[in-house]
Specification:
Strand order of the largest sheet: 6-9-10-3-11-12
Largest sheet: 6 strands, mixed
Number of strands: 12
GO molecular function: ATP binding; ATP hydrolysis activity
Protein name: Fe-S cluster assembly ATPase SufC
CATH topology of the domain at 8-94 and 169-245: Rossmann fold
Shape: globular
Distance between the termini: 28 Å
Domain ABC transporter: 8-252
Order of helices and strands: EEEHEEHEEHHEHEHEHEEH
Strand content: 25-35%
Organism: Comamonas denitrificans
Radius of gyration: 18 Å
Keywords: ATP-binding, Cell membrane, Membrane, Nucleotide-binding
CATH superfamily of the domain at 8-94 and 169-245: P-loop containing nucleotide triphosphate hydrolases
CATH architecture of the domain at 8-94 and 169-245: 3-Layer(aba) Sandwich
Structural class: alpha/beta
Length: 252
């Protein structure tokens, strides 16, 4: 565990979707290299938190702050949030027809590099790293030349999200049910990747109800969301209790 100033500080975040308030008030500190697991029943606000932090236009932040490395994400457009170092892995990654996977990821990576004053990677240098990343994730290299997620299976889409993660190397990554659609080897690849990136300082917020993966990830904290608020905070014992009794539990 890295002991330092939090890389991400969320303070009293309130989020509306249309006329409905989904997040009532979320306060959360995320340390560099840490791992936080979010659990909660459907509609409790887990995915909403990720979408709001990433800047999705349908998720309106009506109060609060989210400070990443001294910058308030809420005041930035979505692309600037990504350049600042926030990464969101979608629960259901969308297709982008007509845009090749390798071009999509290289364009995103070079935008991040430009924001840091670094030189862009040419196609050759990028492909070298991307192919190695794909191999590590058990992802066919041929998928790099296909349109983004078009015709991909659920597991292939999730591996593709992980490939983007390895190339962009963000400060904070929120993985929304990354285990959904993955086979046993895919889940193992997630755990190994997260462990490796945590050691390099990337912080993770993982939305999951898959106890075996949560135990393998060894989170620093487990949070249970309920009706747009953090109802319980704990460790693995909380995740195990939820897995055993479900969300129809008495609140302390």
């Amino acid at each position: 565990m890295f002991m330092s100033t939090p890389v991400l500080q969320v303070r009293d975040l309130r989020v509306d979707i249309g006329e409905r308030t989904v997040l009532q008030s979320i306060t959360l500190d995320v340390q560099p290299g840490s791992l936080t697991v979010l659990m909660g029943a459907n509609g409790s606000g887990k995915s909403t938190l990720g979408m709001a932090l990433a800047g999705h236009p349908h998720y309106k932040v009506t109060a609060g702050q989210a400070i990443l490395d001294g910058k308030d994400l809420i005041q930035l457009p979505a692309h600037e949030r990504a350049r600042t170092g926030f990464f969101l892995s979608f629960q259901s990654p969308p297709d982008i027809p007509g845009v090749k996977n390798n071009l999509f990821i290289r364009t995103a990576l070079n935008a991040v590099r430009e924001s840091k004053g670094e030189a862009p990677l040419d196609a050759f240098d990028f492909l070298s790293g991307a192919k190695q990343g794909a191999k590590t994730l058990g992802m066919p290299i041929t998928m790099l030349n296909r349109p983004v997620n078009e015709g991909f299976s659920g597991g292939e889409r999730k591996r593709n999200e992980l490939l983007q993660l390895t190339q962009l190397n963000p400060r904070v990554a929120l993985l929304d049910e990354i285990d959904s659609g993955l086979d046993v080897d895919g889940v193992r690849a997630v755990v190994e990747l997260v462990q490796r990136m945590r050691a390099q300082g990337t912080a993770f917020i993982v939305v999951s109800h898959y106890l075996q993966m949560i135990e393998s990830l060894q989170p620093d904290q487990v949070l249970r969301l309920d009706q747009g608020r953090i109802a319980e905070t704990g460790g693995l014992e909380l995740a195990r209790s939820i897995a055993e009794t479900g969300f129809t539990r008495a609140t302390a």
